[in-house]
């Protein structure tokens, strides 16, 4: 994700457990947060540091008697410690999910976890500017419950088609509304230099609320739930992702192939990229 040049750098505040690998002449960071892959619910993930100096994406998954939760956060790039915000947010969401006593309270879970993580990030920032996006999926009884803030996305891949769950909380969405109401031209909306600027994220003093699916999404056998940071969808087209996801690959292999496709493009400004795939069997 992008931030403006005027944003001050953060104080270094913690670290992410990671393994540093060499990929060609470039550093590649594969981060696996503490995760659990339950029997019968295949989960896969892939990650690359891209052309960045630091890995600001963080992710985790866990399973309880109530279902499986997968969480992905993308710390604001360009700041000294976007990864502090992303790590803290994911940790809070997993911690709160482990406290969940009834799946019927899942919407309250999303709301509470977002509020707690926003407060804790702000406390650690101590007045500096920073934050993270976050997408969280809970799969229980063939139903997808989800919450999202920022510009990371949740999709369901079904029969060769993508079904988008959340909206991107960027200025682009506001510009689109202004275009539809006639306040600006299509060209002005498309060419606006700050269209990717976040208008809502965790670690923001004016944090509004987390977007939550009003009703659970009914999953079908063979559906693939996809969580990804903008480093994935800004690099690969839907056609390229469809080609990979349509293959009869386990989710981890599919996730790794997505990351390989990103790295093969060798973009000079490649952002951190992370993808989680959960198969509904």
Automatic annotation (TrEMBL):
rRNA-binding recorded as keyword: no
Pfam family, one: PP2C_2
Cross-referenced Gene3D superfamilies: PPM-type phosphatase domain
Entry keyword set: Membrane, Transmembrane, Transmembrane helix
Domain PPM-type phosphatase: 42-280
Top-level division of the source organism's lineage: Bacteria
Transmembrane feature ranges: 6-25
Protein name per the record: Protein phosphatase 2C domain-containing protein
Protein's organism: Paenibacillus profundus
Organism lineage string: Bacteria, Bacillati, Bacillota, Bacilli, Bacillales
